[in-house]
Amino acid sequence: MDCLFGFVGDGFVMMGADTSACQSIIRVKQGIDKILETGGKKLMGAVGDGGDRVQFTEFIEANMQLYSFRNGVPLSTNATAKFIRGELATALRKGPYNANLLVGGLDAGEVSLYYIDYLATLHKMNCAAHGYGALFMYTLFDSEWKPGMSLEEAKVLARKCIAEVKLRLVVAPPEFLVKIVDKDGCRVVSLEE
Amino acid sequence: MARYDRAITVFSPDGHLFQVEYALEAVRKGTTAVGVTGTDIIVLGVEKKSTAKLQDARTVRKIYKLDDHVCLAFAGLTADARVLVNRARVECQSYRLTLEDKVTIEHITRYIAGVQQKYTQSGGVRPFGISTLIVGFDPTGAPCLYHTDPSGTYSAWKANATGRNSKTVLEFLEKNYTETSGDDTVKLAIRALLEVVEPGSKNVEVAVMTRDGGSLRILDDAEVDAITAVIEADKVAAEAAKKGPSSS
What are phi and psi of B82, to 5 degrees? Predict the structure, then answer.
């Protein structure tokens, strides 16, 4: 029922997630922000069982901050993704975290997006999504995504993705929050036309 | 067979812990560090040890950021400081993770002092050879300056100095300390340091923290030289004023 998606554009990464916190078939709370704006220019979106999602991302954030203080520079997007994957992999056969993440960021002008799932899979991708909604979003990415999209074109694609999920998924979340990260940092974007 | 469980820091018959006292000697050999609080600003000044020609001076640091809102300056063994600073940084993040709040200056000082004390009461280890000055603003917005030493004692100060010639600097501060703010506090801190250090930006490093200015800012050479020049000018003016009335 959680839905998280992201794709890269021209000098930015756009990431969107639903804002509902659910317990089995009950929507416990609306208006949850599942995309963390972390050290430097990075977005870390996570979906999964409530406790794991928050505990794990906060643990990762604390480690990223520690790295910045020790080394004077924030962790790169690639290093962040690898670190997250490493933690998930180590915990997998002991006490696994049920969290699926997308990490997107800017490093010296280069944008990148990483797909990480709860089994510690890691892939660098142009477009990625988690949850049941991903089933519909991947087909839209296949037909609509192209490299070097502008912000306006990206908003159009994001709107289409959300509309498709709401149309076809029985348990579609009612509300989404979309963010981008670019050279000016992280911020929320409104998809209103 | 080497036994590592024997304590190195043991009491002498007259109640001294010699290892701790020798550690304090090591601190007294280290370059001077001074900390001064103002109403809305905290200033840390350190004596810059002369670096070798081929050495990159930027990598010789005496002022460390522990978290966005806490800083530490030290006097004594650099390597010991590095280890202690690392432990403190981990503690700052650990506190944030567990309590979703940043550490108070008192908490992190108590933690660092606790680590220093542990090393005076454990087997096979020696005390850390450093005294620290820990600064930051507490949750009410009041400026804090704490001092720790190798024995693990800590206390809060309005202004303090540690390292070589710290007695001279502290005497100067006791005579001249008043509640100041902004640039006046910076001037006071540098004046105190210049009692025992040669003037000039290559001998002195100054860092400031303001209540609403975000985190630590290290003054660049031009700023330090400018303030030093003002201090020298004030001194000259004061000398002239003293002699003034008698000469004609």
Answer: -60, -45
Residue with tokens 């030093």: B228
Which residue matches tokens 């203080």? A69
ipTM of the complex: 0.80
User: Quick check: A58 and B97 CB within 8 A?
Assistant: yes
Given a cut of 80, is residue A82 above it in pLDDT?
Answer: yes
Catalytic residue among B9, B31, B32, B210: B31
- B93 to A65: CB separation less than 8 angstroms, yes or no: yes
Q: How far apart are CA A43 and CA A54, in angstroms?
A: 15
The Cα A161–Cα B42 span in angstroms is: 52
pLDDT of residue A140: 96
Find residues 69-98 of chain B whose CB sits inside 8 Å of chain A.
86, 89-90, 92-94, 96-97
| Nearest chain A alpha carbon to B65 | A69
Q: How many whole angstroms separate alpha carbon B123 and alpha carbon B7?
A: 4
B32 is catalytic: no
Write the pLDDT tens digit of every residue in A138-160: 999 999 999 999 999 999 999 99
Q: Which of A59, A98, A63 is nearest to A79 (CA)?
A: A63
Q: Evaluate if residue B214 carries a pLDDT over 80.
A: no
CB pairs under 8 A between A and B: 21
User: What's residue B1's pLDDT?
Assistant: 43
Model pLDDT, residue B10: 85
Whether B61 has its CB under 8 Å from any CB of chain A: the answer is no
- Helices marked H in chain B — which ranges? 18-29, 78-99, 105-118, 166-176, 183-194, 221-243
As a whole number, mean pLDDT of residues B23-49 equals 94
Tell me the helix, strand and coil percentages in chain A, rounded to 5. Answer: 35, 35, 30
Q: Is A71 on the interface with B (CB under 8 A)?
A: no
| Closest Cα in chain A, distance from residue B230 (Å) | 33
Indicate the helix (H) or strand (E) that contains A5.
Answer: strand A4-8
What pTM value is reported for the model? 0.87
Which pLDDT tens digit goes with each residue over B168-213?
Answer: 999 999 999 999 998 999 999 999 999 999 888 788 999 999 988 6
Scored b (16 or more CB within 10 A) or e, A91-101 reads eeeeeebebbb
Are A62 and B93 an interchain contact pair (Cβ–Cβ within 8 Å)? yes
